[in-house]
Amino acid sequence: MKVVICGAGQVGWQIARHLSGERNDVTVVDSNEALVRRATDTLDVNGVSGFASYPNVLERAGTSDADMIIAATHSDEVNMVVCQVAHSIFGVPRKIARLRSQSYLDAIYSDLYRRDHLPIDVVISPELEVAEAALKRLSTPTSFDTESFLDGQAQLLGFRLDENCPVINTPLRQLTDLFSTLRTIVVGVRRQGVLFAPEAGDQLFSGDECYVMCHHQDRLRTTEIFGKPTAKQERIVIVGGGNVGQRVAQALEQDDRRMRIKVIERNRSVAEEAADALERTIVLNGDGLDSTLLIEAGIGRADAVLAITDDDKTNMLAAVRAKSMGCKMAIALINDPTMVPMMGTLGIDAHINPRATTVSSILRHIRHGRVRDVYSIGDAEAEVIEAQVLNTSPIAGQRIRDINFPEGVLIGGVLKNGEMVKPTGGLRIEDGDILAIFALAKDVPELERLLQVSIDFF
Questions:
Q1: What is the pLDDT of residues 285-294, one digit of tens each?
Q2: Which domains does the chain have, with CATH numbers?
Q3: What predicted TM-score, i.e. pTM, was given to this entire model?
């Protein structure tokens, strides 16, 4: 497949890395020569320096015979023009655009993206993705990461283990014996900053960050076994009342639990807009780092604080201050992946990475073949790939214990005939089964080969 990616920032670079690793013909376009050079130096891609909306630049990038164009520059308008030029001049079959502005995303204007108007096949909104990620974090308050797979029957949960965790210092194979009816698999462990796929004889230690895949019906039991009893979410404080904060607050207002929500927004006009848009939420105008304002918001009694301003440092400091004042849980929006290792030291419980959520969303829409879903973990350290097994796949008809997976690959769940089952060594993988697989980044190409999906996108 030939793909042109416009925008060589973090999102564009990650998409290029994924697609080029699967032996696709990828060309990256950006007006910043340094970003183009970084992509061509580190990835097996072609690079073109120039404005992505210019027809002659797109022609140099080989758009005339491209199968897909992904417009992920920093400008909504450039991304829209890229798709229009790709359609009108080059006839590109599939066009994906990242759009940030709420005005472009309003449902009443959805006709704008029809083929006879502005031909964009898929619109990706980072703000919508971040709001959804924030709600998922709040729904699983004891985990720092979460995502659903296998038609909602499987849940990926990330736990930071402490000394009170009942299962530390216990080999993983013994956990299987102790909790034989628990449909849960430990698929990844990050220890001292290094992520790996554990083996049956490995133990979990205090300080580890552990990724587990469990059946959704076993989620509460799993959190208790890993020393993370579920806490009530009744009082929520949101720092940042922009589009993301408003979306999260609106979703929480519709929750059956009748939560008490307060929003703190520094910009007065934005705060007034949020107050008009929200019905049961109290909006406070002021600095989210102001301890007096936090006391007024009842931070000491809050079950969670969600710091989602457009500044990483503000989010981290607001989360730290909220925890120091008695808030039970702190979630921070962090764009810079180099700041993530500081979270544990600062006492921040979970974070949201907008780039990772956007990358996962774009990959989800790209892969229309046997790969049904992709979730990026950490700073692109690993992926959870959901894929359907083909009858031509080398793993079809084999028992799991007989499959020669790379060391960094583990099956977290199997969907057979619409029902999720726990993967065991004796389980036979059959044509039509859907797998949720954890894979370290270096092992993804080999996993793709075993699944035989790298050329089965459409």
A1: 999 999 999 9
A2: 2-124 (3.40.50.720), 130-225 (3.30.70.1450), 235-328 (3.40.50.720), 368-451 (3.30.70.1450)
A3: 0.74
